Amino acid sequence: MLRKKLYEQFARIGKSISHANRLELIDLLCQGPRSVDSLARESGLSVANTSQHLQVLREAGLVEAHRNGLNVYYNLSDESVCSFWLSLQNLGKSRLAEVERLARDYFSNREALEPLDLQALLSRLEAGDAVLLDVRPVEEYAAAHISRAVSIPLTDLEKRLGELPLNKEIIAYCRGPYCVMSEEAVRLLSRHGYKARRASGGLVEWRSHNLPLSFDSPRPGNGGLEQ
Q1: Cβ contact 177:205 at 8 Å
Q2: Which of 84, 101, 186, 192 is the most buried (most CB within 10 A)?
Q3: 171 by DSSP, 3-state: which?
C-alpha cells in the first residue's frame, strides 16, 4: 500500500538518528560545516567511525558532503534538520524524567548558575550593560555566531581575561543547553572576580527565534560529493 511505503520512508529518518553518536554529530553540524577530522576530534570518535555515521545520515538526506582540496567537509542539508534536533531535545526533556536528572548531574551546582533566557539576553545586549562571550572553538564562531558576541574559546579564556571588562556582566554561551563549556567559563570568570552567567541556549536556540546572526567565513554550498 502507498500509505505503508510512505511510513517506511519516514522511518528512514528515525533509523538514521537512532544512535547517540549520530545525534552528537548533528549537534556539532548545527554550529556550522565541519571536516570529518574535526568532527572526529570533537566527538571523540575515530575518523573511520565518524565517516560511517555521517554516511548513514547522508543516505537519509540529513547531511551533505563536499570536498575542499584533500579534505571532506559536511554540513546539514537543510535548516530544518537543526529545528528537528531542537524539537527532539525539547520532547525528551518534557517526556523523559531521566533527561532532567542527567542534566542536573551534568551541571554541578546548577542552581548557583541559573542561566539567562534568550529574550532577557537580547534585552541586556540592547541596553549595553553586558558582554556576550562565545566560548566555542574559533571555527564554529566563524561559521555563525550571535551578533555582537566576542569570541574567546574556553581553552584560551584564562590567558585572555584582560580583554573582558570587569564593570560589565559577562554572559557566556556555547552550543546549547547541554553544552558544559559555558558553565566552565562562568566558573573561571567568577574565580577571577567577574560577574558572569551562562545563556540558557546557544546558536540553534537563538536562530530558532529568528534573532540576528553574524558570519565571519563564507558559507559553503550544498553541492554533493560524488563517490
Answers
A1: yes
A2: 186
A3: strand
Q: Which candidate in 30, 82, 174, 179 is catalytic?
A: 174
Question: Per CATH, which fold does 2-81 belong to?
Answer: Arc Repressor Mutant, subunit A (1.10.10)
Which residues lie closer than 8 Å to 119 by C-beta, 6 or more apart?
none
* Average pLDDT rounded to a whole number, residues 195-212: 86
pLDDT tens-digit readout, 90-108 = 999 899 999 888 877 776 5
Confidence of residue 219 (pLDDT cuts 50, 70, 90): very low
3-state secondary structure of 138: helix
pLDDT band at 27 (very low <50, low <70, confident <90, very high): very high
CB 88 within 8 A of CB 95: no
| Residue 82 is among the residues annotated as catalytic for this protein | no
Domain ranges of the chain: 2-81, 101-214
Give me the CATH topology for the region 101-214. Oxidized Rhodanese; domain 1 (3.40.250)
Provide the whole-model pTM.
Answer: 0.84
